[in-house]
Amino acid sequence: MVCQEDPLIRTICELHAKISSLETLSPCKDVNNLFTQLVLTCIPPHPIEVDSLCSKVQEIRSDLIRLCGEAEGLLESHFSSLLASFDHPLDHLHLFPYYNNYLKLARLEFDLLSQHLTCGAPARVAFVGSGPLPLTTLVLAANHLNDTVFHNYDIDPSANSKALRLVLPDPDLSKRVLFHTDDIMNVTTALGDYDVVFLAALVGMAEEEKVRVIAHLANHMAPGAILVVRSAHGARAFLYPVIDPSDLRGFEFLSVFHPTDDVINSVIIARKYMNLNDSIPIVHDIVTTMKKKLPLATKKCCEIQPFLDPLNPCGNIAEDLAIEEKSS
Question: Which of 123, 126, 239, 326 minimizes the number of CB atoms within 10 Å of its CB?
Answer without folding.
Answer: 326
